[in-house]
Amino acid sequence: MSNGFIDAGDTHRLYFETLGNPSGEPVLVLHGGPGSGCSPRLAELYDTARQWVILFDQRGAGRSTPAGETRANTTAHLIADIELLRRHLGIARWRVTGGSWGATLALAYAAATPLATSGLVLRSTFMPGAANVRWFFQDLAEVSPAAWQALAALVPEGERDDLLAALQVRLNAADHAAARAAALAWARYERALAEPSAPLDDWLPGSAELDRLVLKYRLQAHYLRAGCFLDEAAFLSACETLAGLPVTLIHGRLDQVCPPANAERIHARIAGSRLVWVEGCGHEAFHPAMVSAWRQALLITC
Fewer CB within 10 Å of terminal CB in the chain, N or C? Predict the structure, then answer.
């Protein structure tokens, strides 16, 4: 394994690492969030004997610096960063993979750089735009009321018609305790939706992890308040330009975070794409059935 940093400008330095076979197929890994950073577990999903796997932490996320920085941090910046990394590593074309927000970013990147992308393998794709953000923070109150009420309890009733705005205010506040409380409530909500069998309120991370979550969700709120800097209609139109590119969309039938209907909409826009349904699975990247479908998709050569 090798790792390092790239200067991306605007004070941003991007952490990246490579592992696997440098003579194998180059495969880029795009993490979710936005703001999550690359989990070490992601490497478990790839065949490092035949693939050269490249992971990097997006602007402000993970080990990239400055941590949690929202200035000069948009989807357009991230697409430029991916190209900067590709040129830095001397890669002509690579397969691009990602889950949730990482899948969205992969689609936007491929549409912007068709000559650099050999194929896409995507999990639980998030649809950008205000309506989809509202689904997560407001409309799920009808679908998962216990999880939503636990999140909404963080703020006064008068602020509950725009929970994202209320959370963002607290995450950006000088009050460190308020920021930590908002981050913990968001993380528990996300966990409850992705893993419905998990208890709602028994997970309490340590102090350092709480501070990391504040930075993560501060950055995520920055993106979601802007609809991830992508217009839904324009994003779907961009997907149409990927016709003929090997694209596999993998989606859990029970996904509440990213509704399955949106996977169908994206699939319908990309002529020749494959949509693989994972039964009995929600938004969990490491659910055994999801891992199996993911590894099978990566076996298909581009």
Answer: N
